[in-house]
Amino acid sequence: RRCDRHPISCTPESAQGVNRTKHHTDLYHTDAFIIRRGQNFQMGISLSRPFDPKNDKLHLILKTGPLPTVAKGTQVDVPLVESLVGGRWEAAAVKQEGNRIQLSVNSPATTAIGRYQLTVETTCVGGHAVSTHDPANDVYILFNPWCEEDTVFMDSEEERREYVLNDVGRIYYGTQDQIGQRTWNYGQFDDGILAICLFILEKSGTPPSGWGDPVNVVRVISAMINAVDDNGVLVGNWSGNYSAGTSPTVWSGSIEILREYHKNNAAPVKYGQCWAFAGVFTTVLRCLGIPARTVTNYSSAHDTDVSLTTDVYLDENLDPINHLNTDSVWNFHVWNDCWMARPDLPLGNGGWQAVDATPQETSQGTFRCGPTALTAVRNGYVYLKHDTPFVFAEVNSDKIYWQKNADGTFNQIYSEKKTVGHSISTKAVGSDERSDITHLYKHAEGTEQERIAVETACRYGSKAAAYSSSAAEDVSLKVSMDGKGPKMGQDVDLSITMVNSSAEHRTIVLHSQRE
């Protein structure tokens, strides 16, 4: 029996088999061989003759990326062993019938995700041979939130069903007083979407050797969902003129956007705004196995100078100095949370991480944001990566008013401490109700813990020396009006009540401004 006739066709038995159920990949609308890393899977191998374990050797070869190498983990040689140990690449024969053997295969929970070419190498006394690669046998390896050793592990089955397996969700918009909602079809399991998600990763130009780390992967995807600086999926447009493409309000799901991007060979799709960026981001993350949700922040600040404050500059007459007022507060802004451990950060910073694909500010030279640990945001630990100062300012910055002096300097004349970051919302687990998750991003407004977090954060901001002390908090001001309210064209009588709760004399200067 000549060895060069020993191999064979390689026939993975996963598409209709037990793997799809055990690996929670049965919802993907494809017959592709899809598994999750860190978990045992079964596959069959057909050979040109019966396998002789005493004289024959067999191992699997998995390759991903343009230049697969063993040293970088993009080529994996899976040995055939007598018994499985776990936590490593290994295969064991569990059944043999004629020319066909059934293999039980383990993979480590750190495996790089992606599409792997699968071949089989066999060796016997007469030599060795390698099977011909068949794209139909390629193996898609995903993150595994069901595996405790995977950094994206989530221990609640109810939450896994919501944040990984649910393909429809709600996205919130409007204002904190009038919260609106729209249904969004994520469609992460639709035909071709998994291939498109991997296509996006490939178009990023980043090495597949780094695709085993979810921190790195979400940063790559955050950059690739927007079209700025890398020809990503969506072009942002806030001008109101959408004649060259599709109005952002027309989209009701991610599938059409992703398919258009793929069909046009990575030509960015026109147009999107924050909810569309976030909706597509959720689709890609869930498709690849990273638990994710779409999040809306009301009265969302955009800090442009890393001051960790939202600054308003006024001239000597208290009129706005428009060219200096680059910070802003949006009625609402939509981004994402994703779930993962953070071994790169101090203990306690795992769990939900904020990520944002809307192009606002650059992070290490690229328009992307996160992952930012919500625990770090909540406590003002803005020195922890990635992009914690920006996310902190979005949800908990003080709005500070500065007046220009005759010598060109500015003095702080007023601050609003409860203007930014309200009713942070996401779809509830297992229902279509709105879940308020503000408490995950910030301590209760006005509490000592919340003020400590703000002061902690602002020590690292660009205006740390100018940040107001809490000494002025001992004077309160209340504006009230008698009657049913103002009437058009008539004067209004206002009552202003000030209370000095300190034991010291205070001199008060009142400023008013019509908006």
UniProtKB/TrEMBL annotation:
UniProt xrefs under InterPro entries: Ig-like_fold (IPR013783), Ig_E-set (IPR014756), Papain-like_cys_pep_sf (IPR038765), Transglutaminase (IPR050779), Transglutaminase-like (IPR002931), Transglutaminase-like_sf (IPR036985), Transglutaminase_N (IPR001102)
Topology relative to the membrane: Lipid-anchor
Superkingdom in the source lineage: Eukaryota
Cofactor: Ca(2+)
SMART domains assigned to the protein according to its UniProt record, in alphabetical order: TGc
Acyltransferase recorded as keyword: yes
A molecular function GO annotation: protein-glutamine gamma-glutamyltransferase activity
Locations listed in the record: Membrane
Keywords: Acyltransferase, Calcium, Keratinization, Lipoprotein, Metal-binding, Palmitate, Phosphoprotein, Transferase
Transglutaminase-like domain: residues covered: 266-359
EC number: 2.3.2.13
Pfam families: Transglut_core, Transglut_N
Biological role: Catalyzes the cross-linking of proteins and the conjugation of polyamines to proteins. Responsible for cross-linking epidermal proteins during formation of the stratum corneum. Involved in cell proliferation.
The protein's assembly and partners: Interacts with PLAAT4.
Name by which UniProt lists this protein: Protein-glutamine gamma-glutamyltransferase K
Organism: Takifugu rubripes
